[in-house]
Amino acid sequence: MSCWLLHILIISSLHLISLSSQQEKRFFYENFLDQENLYLDKSANVLPSGLLQLTSASEHQTGHVFYKKPIGLSSSKPLSFSTHFVCALVPRPGYEGGHGIAFVVSPSMDFSHAQPNRYLGVFNTSTIVSPSSHVLAVELDTIWNPEFSDIDNNHVGIDVNSSVSVGIASASYYSDMKRQNESINLLSGKPIQVWVDYDGTMLNVSMAPLEVKKPSRPLLSQHINLTEVFPNSSRLFVGFSASSGAAVSDQYIVGWSFSTERGSLERLDISKLPQVRHPKKNST
Asked: CB neighbours (10 Å) of residue 48?
């Protein structure tokens, strides 16, 4: 009888461990000085100020950062997540700015096959960028690439396994005060807020200047079933990628909050974020 009870207790304990692995996952960065749970790749580095710099003003760079602990797809519960991040794309005086930043969801942190330039360090000419080849990206793109069906050189796109966006819009935000969309210049060098919310099969992307609260209307809404995008994965990683080409920028992540439960996303305190410094123009 005692052996039977012990067997039941072991099974119950394993069940609880399994449930805990599927519980909410949250993290929060108002600066990136604590790098313990971060994976930084290629040109990505953390500055003494706490800014996470993905690319500096050098040509043909790629930078990645991922949160090391995976989130998972569950057969019993649809994947949901919500993230809020602040980024800044700061062009160098005298250079065309580019190429942009992407928020990435992938079963792998290995993007060694990805290319810089217009591929944003996420894709390449064959789209085979990782052992799984399955990627979801939300891009802030500052170069017009007609071969990808880009609409302009200042847009936001939702990419699924390809550089050709399944949803795309010129960078803007809905002003609740004016009740209309206001354009945003991604290459202004000013910090920009971005929200990405996924629930069930709907992905919403919103953005706003630093001093504006989250708009009541998203910029993009796209039906995407992530269980189809990632059919064989119980482990997904979230992070960022950025790249430069002949067009260069200092591209930063200033702050980042993430949760697998939308209602418990921790709010970034804008006043506590590190300052973004702009390069000085040459005196010549």
From this structure: 7
